[in-house]
């Protein structure tokens, strides 16, 4: 399932005309219990009116005098994480949704953040696996090759048994902080599940392999609480081609993560720090000329 704006947007949108009075717009907000009204004129979206705009404008003026003319909007298929970046970039509270130049819905910041909270791991403060899938799709749609590092802690079940789950949770938190510290700003990190972490990059295999070695070394050299020795094994899988077009990028990302996961399992079985999966290429891919 793709987690897009269309999944959470409010489709029944109350609007106001650009030539309506500000006083009327205020009543409309009060009656509908909303803090933002899209402004239309001749059926076209021309602005947005917020409570803040109204407070700064005399009630006898028209909406066109009070509205914010810069409209930040997205398409229904925009991912939740893309929408979050827009909220933060423009410091807005409402995002309008348009399709074929037609207003089809809106999303409030509080609604978006509540939905994103479902993909957030409370223990480590990292996103869950869906975040990686969505970011991978974004990279592929931009024409970037992607690489995945799948990190699995060694003998973690034994640590839980010997020291208790509370101590195990502390270690998971420490590992999450370590990975956040050493992961580059342009990489995407998540807690995949249990004692497994996944890092997605737009790097070539060689650069991604070097990063995996840095992360594994950071874990092995770290002094964890109660002086418990922690090591990890990792699997790496990469799509090497640039400008690769696929009819199902999400499926390609999922398969790539699975390939890296299997490689990490092999690494653990063979007591190796890192195993690089065989190059994965989805059967549904096709080449298109630039």
UniProtKB/TrEMBL annotation:
Pfam families: CBS (PF00571), GGDEF (PF00990). InterPro entries: Biofilm_reg_signaling, CBS_dom, CBS_dom_sf, GGDEF_dom, Nucleotide_cyclase, Rev_trsase/Diguanyl_cyclase. This is Diguanylate cyclase. It comes from the Bacteria. Residues 144-279 form the GGDEF domain. Keywords: CBS domain. Residues 9-66, 67-122 form the CBS domain.
């Amino acid at each position: 399932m793709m987690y897009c704006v269309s999944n959470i947007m409010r489709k029944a949108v109350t609007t106001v005309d650009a030539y309506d009075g500000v006083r009327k717009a205020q009543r409309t907000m009060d009656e509908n219990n909303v803090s933002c009204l899209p402004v239309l004129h001749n059926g076209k979206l021309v602005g947005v009116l917020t409570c803040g705009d109204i407070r700064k404008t005399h009630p006898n003026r028209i909406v066109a005098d009070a509205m914010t003319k810069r409209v930040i909007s997205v398409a229904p298929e925009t991912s939740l994480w893309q929408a979050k970046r827009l909220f933060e970039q423009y410091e807005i509270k409402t995002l309008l949704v348009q399709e074929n130049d037609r207003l089809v819905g809106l999303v409030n910041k509080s609604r978006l953040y509540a939905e994103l909270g479902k993909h957030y791991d409370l223990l480590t403060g990292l996103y869950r696996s869906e975040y990686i899938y969505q970011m991978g799709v974004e990279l592929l749609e931009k024409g970037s090759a992607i690489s995945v590092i799948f990190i699995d802690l060694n003998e973690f079940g034994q640590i839980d048994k010997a020291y208790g789950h509370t101590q195990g949770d502390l270690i998971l938190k420490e590992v999450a902080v370590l990975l956040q510290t050493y992961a580059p700003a342009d990489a995407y990190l998540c807690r995949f599940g249990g004692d497994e972490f996944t890092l997605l990059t737009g790097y070539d295999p060689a650069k991604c392999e070097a990063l995996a070695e840095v992360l594994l070394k950071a874990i092995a050299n770290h002094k964890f609480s109660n002086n418990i020795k922690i090591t990890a094994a990792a699997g790496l899988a990469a799509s090497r081609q640039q400008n690769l077009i696929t009819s199902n990028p999400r499926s390609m990302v999922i398969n790539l993560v699975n390939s890296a996961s299997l490689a990490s399992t092999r690494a653990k079985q063979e007591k190796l720090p890192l195993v690089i999966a065989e190059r994965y290429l989805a059967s549904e891919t096709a080449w298109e000329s630039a």
